[in-house]
Amino acid sequence: MTSAPRQDRVTAAVLVIGDEILSGRTQDGNSHYIAKYLARMGIDLCEIRVVPDIAEEIVAAVNAVRARYTYVFTTGGIGPTHDDITADAIARAFGVGIEENAEAIAMLLERIRPDQLNEARRRMARIPLGAELIENKISKAPGFMIGNVIVMAGVPMIMESMLDAIAPKLRSGARVLVETIDAGSIPEGRYAKALAALAESWPQVGMGSYPHFSSQGVRNQIVLRCREAGPLALAKEAVLAMLSGLANDRAPG
Amino acid sequence: MTSAPRQDRVTAAVLVIGDEILSGRTQDGNSHYIAKYLARMGIDLCEIRVVPDIAEEIVAAVNAVRARYTYVFTTGGIGPTHDDITADAIARAFGVGIEENAEAIAMLLERIRPDQLNEARRRMARIPLGAELIENKISKAPGFMIGNVIVMAGVPMIMESMLDAIAPKLRSGARVLVETIDAGSIPEGRYAKALAALAESWPQVGMGSYPHFSSQGVRNQIVLRCREAGPLALAKEAVLAMLSGLANDRAPG
Q: What is the pLDDT of residues A114-132, one digit of tens each?
């Protein structure tokens, strides 16, 4: 995590709504996509939650995270079927009503013939009162933003289009700069103490060590993260010097 | 979600501990692996959370989920570097001490020469008091189980090995049976009302509708989930009959 003062940070949580993720049927790729997207915007993603298609669970999770972070991004549950309960749950979380939205109906009519706009499809135009619509270029049924909560589809292509539509309207922050240092096969246990000392010397630089195990053995990377280029560059030099100063050590880490 | 009575269910949460997931550096695949694994064991995964490498966040999340579910599976943060703080956070969450564990040291010595068992590597043998070790066949540093919380490595190969080691000791449940029905290009909006009626008629069968959008258009799947084969088969027949009874509808869903 970055060390910038909390009041300067723009923070976020992702809330993935979907039984299909929890049952193992589908692998969620949306939260990784959003994580990378927010990193580019300088928004610190602080938490991801996956919750089932149960209204009480969605309401509790939305209210827990919206109080803590600048933004909450939800994915899933805004289609026309009975298991799509996100819009109603969001309205409940905010304690507001939910009604068919004329602008959303107009969006649906760009893709659906009036005689085919049945009750189920009209459900996709039910929007919590006070929300702002988010355009859906792919299949027209909109997402929405209410308060600091951004409600998007679960289908990746549509979610990505909605994120592009809402992103320009959001606060962004200074982007975290990242340096990845390949520690090769030097075991973590060999450099852990020295790295901890460097992490203490550079409190504004986040330092993490990430092993990758394969049949070829262990490879480690040290990742440095900071919003300021100066300390980051100096910390990188210090880590490189630390690594090159280490005697070769064949013990596993 | 299944409709089995709550007291009969074996439930779980996954807690992924790692800045590298939140920053977008790494895509978490562990939670999907665990989701599929638990489904095969008849354990209902009810929640996934990803939290940063911050002790207070880990403690709060562990305590929130361990009170709610039969089991909690954590991944990440049990290596030798300063950013590996999971064991200490778990001890804090349980209000117990943490000490170097002789059995864990013995495990490390299967892979690390005694003269190379430095302070950082010894950290991997610090285990909350009262925990039971979980064998790590890959790199020896063990995971552990304390109360209902199972603490595993973040490196996928090691996590998978630990899951195999602990699984036989866990309660399992009746496996949820799944039927996936291809609705083809029939739009969700065309069958949503009829599907909702069937979902109401078969309360013991979970029914979800999952669209897949591609450049070739929309394809939908209806997924039925139930622990009993009888109702599942009858519900499947009913859904198939419903779909085949639908007139062809070219409007997008």
A: 999 999 999 999 999 999 9
Q: How many helices (H) and strands (E) does chain B have?
A: 9, 11
- The model carries a pTM of 0.94
- Chain B residues with CB-CB distance to A218 below 8 A: 139
Q: Tell me the C-alpha distance between A17 and A85, whole Å.
A: 9
Instruction: Kindly list the distances between the CA atom of residue B181 and the CA atoms of A24, B40, B242, B244, in Å, as whole numbers in the listed order.
Output: 17, 20, 12, 12
Which residues make up the CATH 3.30.70 domain(s) of chain A? 177-245
How far apart (Å, rounded) are the C-alpha atoms in residues A166 and B111? 52
Which parts of chain B register pLDDT below 70?
Answer: 1-7, 247-253
DSSP SS3 for A123: helix
What architecture does CATH give domain B177-245? Answer: 2-Layer Sandwich (3.30)
Q: What does the pLDDT read at residue A251?
A: 46
Q: In a mutagenesis test of the A interface, which of B41, B210, B213, B248 is the best target, namely the one with the most A β-carbons within 10 Å? A: B210
- Residue A97 pLDDT > 70, yes or no? yes
d(CA A49, CA B43): 19
- Identify all chain A residues contacting B42, using CB atoms and an 8 Å cutoff: none
Write the CA distances from A66 to A134, A193, A206, A239, B94, integer angstroms. 19, 38, 25, 38, 27
Asked if A189 lies within 8 A of B45 by C-beta distance, the reply is no
Nearest to A52 among B46, B155, B199 (CB): B46
**B6-169 belongs to which CATH class?**
alpha beta
Per CB-CB distance under 8 Å, the chain B contacts of A252 are 111-112, 139
Chain A nearest-CA residue for B211: A155
Report chain A's C-alpha Rg in angstroms.
Answer: 23
- Residue limits of CATH 3.40.980.10 in chain A: 6-169
**Chain B closest CA to A42's CA: distance in Å?**
10
